[in-house]
Amino acid sequence: MSKILPTLFWLMALINLTPLLGAVSPSKFKTLYGISPDNLELMTLLQHRAILLGLIGLLLLAASYRQELRWPALALGVLSMGSFVLFALVRGQMDGPLGKIAITDIVGLIFAAFAAFIMFQNKG
User: Fold this and answer.
1) Of 13, 37, 12, nearest to 24 (Cα)?
2) Is 111 in contact with 64 (CB distance < 8 Å)?
3) DSSP secondary structure code for residue 68 in this structure
4) Category of 22 on φ-ψ map: left (φ > 0), alpha (ψ -120 to 50) or beta
5) 12: closest CA among 118, 122, 106, 124?
6) Per residue in 22-47, pLDDT tens?
7) According to the model, what pLDDT value does residue 1 have?
8) What is the CA radius of gyration of the chain?
9) What's the predicted TM-score (pTM) here?
């Protein structure tokens, strides 16, 4: 049971670290989002987004080892993943590449719910 909580944080970190591939190699955005790297303005925004998600991912990864980071990391992760799912739902983008990301974020939110439940049970 003691390995479940760190594993949940690792899984959430992995979800948030994956977009870093696009920050390093913009051509990965074609695979991740179905978006061509030809639009330089869009690439700048997506690469910046990838870095921000990577920072959240690093915080989630650190929280898998450091208990005092868990609630702040969980809050940022839920806000990030939840907002993406909400935008995708509102805009009817639950299919195609963005739908895959939304589904992945829903899975991340399920991991977050389990983590929160365990943390509430353990009072921290």
Assistant:
1) 37
2) no
3) G
4) alpha
5) 106
6) 888 888 888 878 888 788 888 889 99
7) 54
8) 15
9) 0.90
d(CA 71, CA 68): 7
Long-range pairs for 17-25: beta carbons < 8 A, 24 or more residues apart: 17/53, 17/54, 17/57, 17/58, 17/61, 18/57, 19/49, 19/50, 19/53, 19/54, 20/50, 20/51, 20/53, 20/54, 20/57, 21/50, 22/46, 22/47, 22/50, 23/47, 23/50, 23/51, 23/54
Lookup result for tokens 């695979």:
31
The larger pLDDT score, comparing residue 116 to residue 39, is at 116
Considering the chain, what percentage of its residues have pLDDT values greater than 90?
Answer: 69
What 8-state DSSP symbol labels residue 105?
A: H
Q: Is the pLDDT of residue 91 over 90?
A: yes
- The tally of domains found in the chain comes to 1
Query: What is the domain range of residue 8?
Result: 4-121
Lowest model confidence (mean pLDDT) among 9-13, 33-37, 111-115: 33-37
